[in-house]
Amino acid sequence: QEGTTIPSERKQNTSKTTSELLYKNLLKSEQENWSDISARYKAMTKRIKEKLEELHKYKFNLESPRIVFGDNVYFEENGCVFLSKADGDEGNVDILFSTEDLGFSDAFIQRIRISPDQRYMAINLKSENSEEATCVIMKLGHFPVVEKVIPNVFSFEWATNDVLYYTSKKNLKCQNVFMTTFTNQKHTKLVYTEQDARFFVDIYCTKDRRFLTINSNSKTTSEVWLVDCRHPFKLPALVQARTKGVIYHIEHRNEELYILTTYGEPAEYKLMKAPVASSGMENWQLVYALEEKTKLVDLEMFSDHCVMFLKNAGHLYLSVISFVSHSVQSIKLPTWACEFELESHPEHTTSTCYFQLTSPVHPPKRFAYSFKENNLIEQAVQEVPIITNCHTTRLLAKSKDETLVPITVFHNMNSKELHRKPLLVHVYGAYGIDLNMSFKEDKLMLIEEGWILAYCHVRGGGELGLSWHKDGCQHNKLKGLHDLKACIMLLHELGFSQPKHTALAAASAGGVLAGALCNTDPQLIRAMVLQAPFVDVLNTMMKTHLPLTIEEQEEWGNPLADEKCMKYIKSYCPYQNIKTQCYPSVFITAYENDQRIPVTGVLRYVQKLRKAALDHASRTSKKGNWIPNIILDIQANGSHCDSSWEDSLNEVARHLAFLNKELEV
C-alpha cells in the first residue's frame, strides 16, 4: 500500500536480486561478445594448438614422482596408481586401482600417503572445477578396497599403521585437525582447532617419521604442535607459542628439533636446533644462517645430512650440511637452471639426494648429489628432439629508489635485430612467491619462433629472500610497480624489442601490478594477457565476508580500519585508477567457479576499461586512430589458475593467438 515502509530485509533481498540479475546479464553479454570475436583468432589458435600438442608428445616433464617403501615403489600416472619393485624390472608392475574405479573419473590425484606397514593408502582427489578435495583411504592387498571416504580434506599424514591425522578445508579455510583410526574400534576425533581467521592449518610428517607437526601459519607468523608417532593418542605438544613476525617450521633428528625460522636478526631464514624436551625459543641454537638476499626454496633432511636448496641473484645452488663432519658444502648448479623440482618422499637413510632442474625453456633434467662422493651427477635422460639455441641473460634494472631489480631474459641465439622481435614480459610480485619459472611447452615454442621472454623479479615476490617480499607488500606495493616499469624500460634501452612489440603477462595477484602499469604507463606495452587477475583490490579488501579477506590483510593492509591504508590501496588499485586514455589491448581469462578472485570484480574492471578506451578513441577521433581490443573469456570449467591439460592448452593457444595478432608477429 502507498506510504507503507518496506521491511529492511525485503529491501536487502530486492537489491540482492537486482545485483544478481545485473551480474547474470553482464556475464551473458561478455560470453556473447567473446563468441562473436573468437572467430578472428580461430585459425591462429588452431595452428598454435597443433604445435603445442606436437611438443607435448615428447613428455618433457619426467615421470611422475615415485614413493619408495623398502623394495616397493608406488607411483601414479594418468589417474592410475601402480606398484612396482625397486629393482627397476619394468615387466613387474601392477595396477592397484584407478580414479575411475573409485567413481572419480573427472578428478586427478593430488597427494598420496602410505601407512608405515603398507596396509593402507590415503589419496586426495580433486576435480578441476573445485578447490575442495576428497580423501579416499584404500585397504591395499590383492584386491584393494575403499575403507573410508572423507570429503573436504586438505592435508593428511599417517601417525602409525592405522591412525591418520587430517585437516578439513571449508570455504578456502583450514582450521580443524582430526584423527581417525582404522583399528577394531574405528573412531574419528577433533584434536585441534585454530581460532584466528588469519591462520591456515596443515599437517606434515618429519622425514624420520618420528613426529607429525600441526602447523598453523598466517602470512607472517607460525605456531607448531607435535604429535608423537609412538604415542598418537596423546595430546599434541606445543613447540613455541606464536610470536608476531616469527615464522618457523620443524624437522627432527636424534631427539633434536631442527627449526627453520625467521627468528632473530636479520629476519631471514636460519636453521636452528633445540632438544625435543625443551623446545622453547630460549633454547634455539644457530646451525646455519643464509647469506643476504638469498632465497630458501626448500630443505630436505636426511639421517646424516641436511640439503638446502637456495637461490641467489637468479642462480641456484645447494648448501649441504654434514652432521657428522660438521661442515657445509656449497654446490653451484648449471647457469641455465631457474627452478628446482624436488623428488617426493626421498628415503631418510639414503646416501644420495635426487632433484630436477628446469627453466621456462629447458625441460626438467634429473640430477643426483652423492653425500659419499661429494659430487653432482646429471642423470641420463632422453634427448630432446628439437635443438634450442636459447641464450639466458640476467640483468639488473635500477628502480625509482635506486634498488637493483633482477630480470631473467631468454632469446634465440640465432635471432637478428632483437629490437624488432616480440617481447613477452612476466610479472607477479606478491606474497613472497617467486615468479613461476618451471618448464612450459609454449615458452619453448615462442623461443623457436623468435620471441624474447623476460621475467621481472620485482619486490613483493620472494626471489631475494623475505626482505624482498616485505619491501613490496602493504604500504610498499608501489615499489613493485616502479620495479616493473624500470625493468621494461631497461629491456627496451638494451635493444630487447620496443613498446609496439611488447606484451605483459600476469596471473592472479600479478594482475595488480600489471593492471596498475596499464594505468600509469600504457605507452610501454602494446598488449596484456591476464589469467584470473586480481584487479579490484579496494572493493575486495572491504568485503570481510569473502573467504580470504581477513588473512590477506597482512599482504594488502586493512582499508576498513585504516584510512591511510584505504587511500594507499586506492592510489594503485587497477580498477580505481582507470582513466580516459589510450590503453593497450587486453585479453583476460576468468573462471566462473573461482572462489579466490570473484568474477564480479573482473566483469566490473572490463566494463570500465572498455568504456575508458572507447571514450578516449571518440574524443581523439582522427584517421587511423587505434582502438584497443578489450576481451574477456569466461570459462565455465577450471578453478583459480588450475585447469586440466586440455583446458590449459586451449587457454594458452587463445592467449598466444591474441598476442600474435596484436603485436603483428
From TrEMBL:
Q: Where is this protein localized, as stated in its record?
A: Cytoplasm, Cytosol
Which organism does this record belong to?
A: Tauraco erythrolophus
Instruction: Give the protein name, as stated in the record.
Output: Prolyl endopeptidase
Q: Would you identify the family this protein belongs to, as annotated?
A: Belongs to the peptidase S9A family.
Q: Does the keyword Cytoplasm apply?
A: yes
Q: Keyword annotations for this protein?
A: Cytoplasm, Hydrolase, Protease, Serine protease
Q: Which EC class does it fall in?
A: hydrolase
According to its UniProt entry, one GO biological process term is:
proteolysis
Q: Which GO terms describe its cellular component?
A: cytoskeleton; cytosol; Golgi apparatus
Domain (Peptidase S9A N-terminal) spans 32-375
Gene3D superfamilies annotated for this entry?
A: alpha/beta hydrolase, Prolyl oligopeptidase, N-terminal domain
Specify one Pfam family.
Peptidase_S9
- Biological classification of the source: Eukaryota, Metazoa, Chordata, Craniata, Vertebrata
